[in-house]
């Protein structure tokens, strides 16, 4: 995962990364929302950030997706930039498939000027220290003397003894939800997972024991800001599929609602204090422990009546125990929490820093399986001064000549240091906390690489 420190919309993307939870059937969902997907050239942060509504929940399943937000998602060609660099002001542009182009690496002058005047650029003193970032592709190389010593470190997982059915039942009673159990389905609601849905109110509770922890979620569908869109855009075959999902969620024979069933949101956006208070009260009602947790009200999209609240234990932001809630004028309309304790499952061999530099160049580790480093939630707040761009010293573009070699920008950066830290990775068995080498270069940038040795990785082929 990329670490973003100054762009709140991308903070939200980090929480929604597929590495934080189960993968719904995206091919089927894309078919449902294809008509709403952004154009392949779209690079807007808004279009990328809306993936949050789909993927943020580790317990998410297709029926829930269909019922809660199927018409409101932007999972088209734009996507979002996925990299593995971090720094005090590291910034990627959502929807682009490369690093920042503000200094001539793919961003046109108009967009460059627009970014320069936005929250991406420094809004503080002109004396603000420039933050390091990579304006183009890099290749890491080990500096002479970088350690070649391997070691060992534990892997930990979230585990809970709570009975998901009992938890959902007690939570439903607290919230006054008189629903029907969701149908267990091998594809959408596996054996052992529990769901309860109330058709009249559009409220849903779910609990999953994936990976050994207890992952719980709450959704008030009819209060969702995307409710009307979800039903208005479903026509023809798409509507038939949505109706199928709706029956799987709310019970056989339950008719698919219309946009008229959605509740109009009235009132102003809650203040940060009100949003945090509502979030704390909601979690306390559900008996979800938050002792020593830090609560932060996100800066993301303050133009709507909804506030996004994040909560995490010390050093655990966006890890397995991260909590996310959406609070409207009438209270909480969506929530997710991971419950349990982090438990080690053994000591594992760890590659050396020098081997980690080589691994960084391998696609499966730099792109397919990134890691999310834990941090204090307070550290994810936007700095207020933004990121100061410093134009890189790019060489002149060579003139095109017959038979010329391809002129591809690539900078070799020496890794001069490495620190063994811990990060979260999504595996086929759920989230795991694993050892990570945080490789550092002389310009202050750091690059996380999952450090578990090859002999302790079981690559499982999919068909």
Secondary structure topology:
Elements: H1 8-16, H2 26-33, H3 45-49, H4 52-55, H5 62-69, H6 109-116, E1 138-142, E2 151-159, H7 164-175, E3 180-181, E4 194-198, E5 203-208, E6 214-220, H8 227-232, H9 236-250, H10 272-285, E7 294-297, E8 307-312, E9 323-328, E10 331-339, E11 341-350, H11 353-360, H12 363-368, E12 411-427, E13 430-441, E14 446-450
Which spans of ≥5 residues are poorly predicted at pLDDT below 50?
A: 1-84, 87-127
Multimerization status: single chain
The major pleated sheet works out as: 8 strands, antiparallel
Average the pLDDT over all residues and give the rounded result: 73
Describe the strand arrangement of the main beta sheet, using strand numbers: 3-4-5-6-10-9-8-7
What do these coordinates show?
This protein is of the alpha+beta class and 463 residues long. It is 22% helix and 22% strand. It has helices at residues 8-16, 26-33, 45-49, 52-55, 62-69, 109-116, 164-175, 227-232, 236-250, 272-285, 353-360, 363-368, and strands spanning 138-142, 151-159, 180-181, 194-198, 203-208, 214-220, 294-297, 307-312, 323-328, 331-339, 341-350, 411-427, 430-441, 446-450. Strands 3-4-5-6-10-9-8-7 form an eight-stranded antiparallel sheet, covered by helices on one side. A hairpin with a 2-residue loop joins strand 12 and strand 13 (430-441). It starts with 7 loop residues before the first helix and ends in a 13-residue tail after the last strand. 45% of the residues are buried. The model is unreliable at 1-84 and 87-127 (pLDDT under 50).
């Amino acid at each position: 995962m990329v670490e973003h420190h100054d762009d709140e919309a991308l903070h939200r993307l980090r929480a929604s990364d597929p590495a934080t939870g189960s993968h719904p059937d995206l091919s089927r969902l894309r078919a449902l929302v294809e008509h709403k997907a952004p154009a392949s050239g779209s690079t807007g942060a808004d279009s990328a950030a809306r993936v949050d509504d789909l993927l943020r929940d580790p317990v998410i399943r297709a029926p829930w997706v269909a019922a809660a937000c199927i018409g409101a998602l932007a999972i088209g060609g734009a996507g979002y930039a996925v990299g593995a660099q971090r720094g005090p002001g590291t910034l990627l542009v959502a929807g682009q498939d490369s690093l920042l182009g503000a200094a001539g690496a793919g961003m046109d002058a108009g967009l460059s000027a627009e970014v320069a005047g936005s929250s991406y650029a420094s809004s503080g003193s002109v004396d603000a220290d420039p933050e390091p970032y990579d304006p183009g592709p890099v290749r890491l190389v080990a500096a002479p003397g970088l350690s070649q010593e391997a070691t060992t470190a534990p892997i930990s997982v979230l585990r809970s003894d709570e009975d998901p059915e009992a938890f959902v039942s007690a939570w439903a009673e607290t919230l006054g939800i008189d629903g029907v159990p969701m149908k267990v389905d091998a594809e959408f609601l596996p054996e052992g997972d529990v769901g309860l849905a109330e058709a009249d109110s559009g409220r849903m509770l779910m609990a999953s024991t994936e990976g050994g922890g207890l992952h719980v979620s709450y959704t008030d569908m009819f209060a969702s800001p995307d409710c009307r869109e979800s039903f208005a855009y479903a026509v023809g075959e798409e509507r038939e599929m949505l109706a199928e999902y709706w029956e799987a969620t709310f019970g056989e024979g339950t008719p698919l609602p219309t946009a008229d069933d959605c509740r109009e949101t009235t009132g102003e956006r809650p203040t940060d204090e009100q949003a945090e208070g509502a979030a704390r009260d909601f979690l306390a009602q559900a008996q979800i422990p938050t002792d020593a947790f830090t609560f932060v009200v996100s800066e993301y999209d303050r133009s709507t009546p909804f506030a996004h609240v994040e909560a995490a234990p010390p050093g655990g932001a966006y890890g397995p125990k991260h909590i996310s809630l959406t609070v409207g004028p009438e209270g909480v309309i969506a929530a997710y929490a991971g419950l349990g304790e982090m438990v080690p499952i053994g000591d594992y061999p760890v590659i050396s820093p020098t081997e980690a530099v080589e691994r960084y160049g391998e696609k499966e580790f730099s792109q397919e399986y990134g890691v999310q480093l834990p941090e204090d939630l307070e550290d994810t707040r936007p700095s207020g001064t933004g990121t100061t761009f410093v134009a890189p010293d790019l060489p002149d573009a060579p003139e095109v000549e017959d038979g010329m070699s391809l002129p591809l920008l690539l900078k070799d950066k020496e890794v001069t240091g490495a620190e063994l830290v811990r990060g979260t990775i999504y595996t086929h068995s759920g989230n795991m906390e694993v050892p990570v080498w945080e490789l550092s270069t002389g310009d202050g940038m750091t690059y996380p690489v999952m450090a578990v040795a090859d002999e302790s990785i079981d690559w499982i082929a999919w068909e």
